[in-house]
Amino acid sequence: MSGGRGDVLLGNLVLFARILRSTGLPVSPRSVADAGHALTLVDIERRDQVFHALRALMVGRREDLQLFETAFNRFWTASPVAGDPTRRRPEGRTRRHQGRFSIASLSAYRASLVTESPVVADRRGTAAHAEVLRRKRFAVMSADELDEARRLLAHRPWTIQERRSHRRVRDRRGPDVDLRRLLRSVGRTGSVPSRLPRRARLYKQRPVVLIADISGSMETHSRMILHLFHLLVRSLDRVETFVFATRLTRITRHLRLRNVDRAIDEAALNVMDWSGGTRIGESLGEFNRRWSRRLLGHGTIVVIVSDGCEGGDPELLRTELGRLRSRCRRLIWLHPHAGSARFEPRVAGLEAAMSYVDDFVPAGDVRSLIAFSDMLAGIRGAASGRRPARRPGVHRAPIGEGSAPEGTT
Fold it and tell me: Which positions ≥6 away from 107 have C-beta within 8 Å?
């Protein structure tokens, strides 16, 4: 290797070692030095030789092999320089300075490589253009079109119908007399008040749990799905969000940031199996074991976003879906390819899921996500009727493009 080329590769190798350490792999400085020497003995134009050399020196436990492979595939394929698949663009210098690697930036880079259809005339802002954009599949949208689609969804009123709680609150026009307040008033004044105190049932928003597949087969839809999750987290009060490929990762805290791009960037930094393999059954099993008891209750709505391409055991997926369905009020499956003329649910994951899913909903374009928002708004609670004023809570700012400068939380 020449001096300049070797310095770039060595710098990226050190950054790669930091990424592995952040995931819990015990990578020592000695193993990094040995790996750097090993790269001088292999053909760095051969990706397989580089992979096996680094794996042999940086992985010491069998259970870490899958994680190493996922991190390797995500790190060493971002923004390649022409003619050298192992080198990264000069932006690697900035990442070395920051000590971070954003997988979301990789998705944005690949989205920019989508071939755009020729533009005959600029029709942006017209009703015809908006209608075409609503029907266009996310997988074939350009980066600018994805931004427009995000703005269309951001202006939707994302709501979910509330459930009637067993608790009762003060309500001047409520149907029931508040006997406790009435007796206290009589005890203080010695007479019955002219207006009887009343109360009514308290209505609360149903909890929502969002679980998205961000494996390799979902790569063209992952970023838009995270935009959807950000809208729901910012619009509703009780929302928990998870993503998975080969393992489950909770990203609720990151998506609470107001700036959508920063929120997705922060979430992606904590997901090391982005665009990796798919283990739907194992990921749902982890959710059932670790999170279901504390999150699934009071009529929770669970939404799974996946294409159903299960890389594990379909029977395990069937078992875990059954457990999940028994603990929630409603299970909704969003599929990015459903609704197209050629779609047929023949993959093993979908065949296992269809018996337990209440609603199987398309999610491949803006129009289908708008229909999904209408579905959420129409999910009814335990009973209908006039609702009392809601208990004071956190005020939610309107969702809109550019609602906060970069860095605002």
Answer: 219, 222, 223, 268, 274
**What DSSP letter does each residue of 332-370 carry, written as one string?**
EEEESSTTSTT----SHHHHHHTTT-SEEEE-SSHHHHH
pLDDT tens-digit map of 30-72: 888 888 888 888 887 787 888 888 988 888 877 778 788 888 8
Question: Rounded CA gap, 104 and 259, in Å?
Answer: 14
CA distance 96 to 8: 11
- Scan for tokens 């992606």, then name that residue: 268
Question: What is d(CA 383, CA 246) in angstroms, rounded to the nearest whole number?
Answer: 40
Lowest average pLDDT, out of 62-76, 227-241, 345-359, 373-387, goes to 373-387
Q: Which residues share a beta bridge with 377?
A: none
- Position 178, amino acid: D
pTM, two decimals, is 0.62
Residues 6+ apart with CB under 8 A from 184: none
What is the pLDDT of the chain when averaged over all its residues?
75
pLDDT tens for 77-93 read 644 433 443 444 434 33
Q: What's the confidence (pLDDT) of residue 292?
A: 92
Residues 148-167 have pLDDT tens digits of: 888 888 888 888 877 777 77
Which strands make up the sheet holding 301-305, listed edge to edge? 248-250, 239-244, 208-213, 301-305, 330-335, 359-362
DSSP assignment string, 46-78: -HHHHHHHHHHHH--SGGGHHHHHHHHHHHTTS
Listed residue (357, 285, 349) closest to 312, CA to CA: 349
Q: What gap in Å lies between CA 381 and CA 35, rounded to an integer?
A: 59
Which tokens is 44 given? 């760095």
Query: Which of these, 361, 357, 299, lies nearest to 328 by C-alpha position?
Result: 299
Measured CA to CA in angstroms, residue 55 lies from 16, 44, 65, 70, 161 at distances of: 12, 14, 8, 12, 51
Specify the pLDDT at position 341.
67
